[in-house]
Amino acid sequence: MLYNLNMGEFLSKRKRLICILAPTVFGIFYMLISMFNLQQSVWQGESYGAYLTHYNVAQIWEYSAEANQPPLFFWALKAWAHIFGHTDFAMRFMSVFFGALAIMFAYMWVKYKYGARAAILSSMLLSISPVFIRFGQEMQSYTMAAMFVFAATYFLQLAIDNGQKRWWVIYAVMVALGFWTNYFTLFAWIAHVIYLALIYGKKLAKNKILWTFIIAIVLFVPWLPSLFGQLANRGSATPTISLQTIFDNWGEILLYRETSAISGGLLVLAIITSIVLLALVLRYFKQLRLLLCMILTPTVCLILLSLTPYGFTMTPQRLLYAVASVALIGGVATVIATNKLETAILKAKKKTKPVFYRQPKVVFASLSVVLILSSICGICAIYELGNYNFETDEKFSARQLSRDIITADGTSETPIVVASPDLYYDLSFYDNEKHQSYLLLENQDEFTGFYRPLRDAYFGQIKDLDKFLEKHEAVWYVDAVSEHEKVEFPRSGYRATQILTLGTGENGMTYEAIRFMPE
Asked: Quick one: average pLDDT of 337-364?
């Protein structure tokens, strides 16, 4: 009997099993795709978090406040590194893991709201979303924040439909945890408020909803003094938003390429994908209100924030949960369109009128193929470009430089003296027992803000270079210089015996590591 069942019957009889397996499969699939780039060189934002894992919980609280970030991600990273190790692969895999959890929570919410078929397609598209993969590979808080946003969205939906206090309380906890992870989750909570206003109208201030946000605020109160201090100390910045920035962001979301790099067939694919998404959204916007709020509200808020003198750069990773919602809205809208078409065909058949509609399966497949092709092209771009920074046009090379130094040094145990704090954060991540990096404190400005941990460090500091040189026959001296500049050792009487040069990108900066010995 089993072998005579068609695929539809097979799936319907095993719907419960599929609903359990699907999010797990897509989460694992996402982890497998994401894990290949995890050993590329760390960069400053990542190496800072890795550096904080050397400190205790209270110190991380203090230093994350100095760096204008909440501390929860750094606490989680410290615990993760304690269990799985301090390698680049292990520590970045925490972000991949949270990305997989975000996919599972997104699946749960979409399934509850729109059904299993929409959840399967949406979570599949999310698991191959280029930007979600790319920034899930970074040792940053983006995917952890996305996980809390999608978990909160799921519990919010349960609270709205069931009205039980426990769901509102859990939602409040998720809101607070999200804000403890990344400040930009604030825009997701604003999106939720707008959605609640659309549902409840004047009844928005009803007790359960009001108490929900009071609980969330109370849970965040301990961090408020640090937040106010960060806002007060934040310097001014030149507004960075423009129409070109918005188009570049959209190109990055679809194909992980800036608009200037999209040409030929890729341009056609980008246009088709954009038209498909826009058409589906305009046609079924009423059913997609919450997803639209989660995409548009954070985007508009960040655009407005970018226009202020204290503006932030408009980048997809800061609103990764909104970018992820683009993948979800594509999957949900495709299924809604297919379901509407199936319903129309059934009604037409009952009225015995000619049916002029194409088969729903063809429409479903066509829309899905367009969205999947776009994602595949974006994934290819990720592996082609690697750990690449669109803002500075550079690839980060600390890992390769560290390897080159170790190879050139052979069996020696020559220490590495680093000239700048930024470079020290990156290089020190790759220290081992034989090769340690040390920050030269001479000619350094006062260590505040992002550099505060270096001021209080109990390791890796050179306060007196002359005494340090007396203990070592040779040292590697590392600095970053622009084109036509030359690295000069801060002491006379030393000669260069080996020179390693490694370019960092189109901005003309290079790393130079020079092995110096007394003449």
From this structure: 69
In this structure, are residues 482 and 370 in contact, taking their beta carbons and an 8 Å threshold? Answer: no
Torsion of CA 337, 340, 341, 342, to 10 degrees: 120
Tokens describing residue 112: 């509850």
Q: Which helix (H) or strand (E) holds 44?
A: helix 44-52
What predicted TM-score, i.e. pTM, was given to this entire model?
0.90
Answer for the pair 504, 396: CB distance below 8 angstroms, yes or no: yes
Indicate the angle between helix axes 15-34 and 88-114, nearest 10 degrees.
Answer: 150
Contact predicate 519/495, CB 8 Å = yes
Cα–Cα distance measured from residue 321 to residue 189, given in angstroms and rounded to the nearest whole number? 12
Mean pLDDT (the chain) is 85
- The number of angstroms, rounded, from the C-alpha of 411 to the middle of its chain's C-alpha atoms is 39
Which alpha helices (H) appear in 115-185, and where do they start and end?
A: 116-127, 130-136, 142-162, 165-181
Helix (H, G, I), strand (E, B) or coil at 518: strand
Kindly list the distances between the CA atom of residue 471 and the CA atoms of 144, 424, 464, 474, in Å, as whole numbers in the listed order.
45, 21, 12, 9
Domain ranges in the chain are: 2-389, 395-518
**R_g of the chain, CA atoms, integer Å:** 26
Q: What is the pLDDT of residues 435-486, one digit of tens each?
A: 889 998 877 777 777 888 888 887 888 888 889 998 888 999 998 877 677 8
d(CA 302, CA 371): 26
CA 111 to chain centre: 24
What single string gives the DSSP state of each residue in 308-352?
STT-----GGGGHHHHHHHHHHHHHHHHHHHHHHHHHHHHHHHTT
The values of phi and psi at residue 478, to 5°, are -120, 135
pLDDT tens per residue, range 380-436: 888 887 765 655 555 667 888 888 888 888 878 889 999 888 889 989 999 888 888
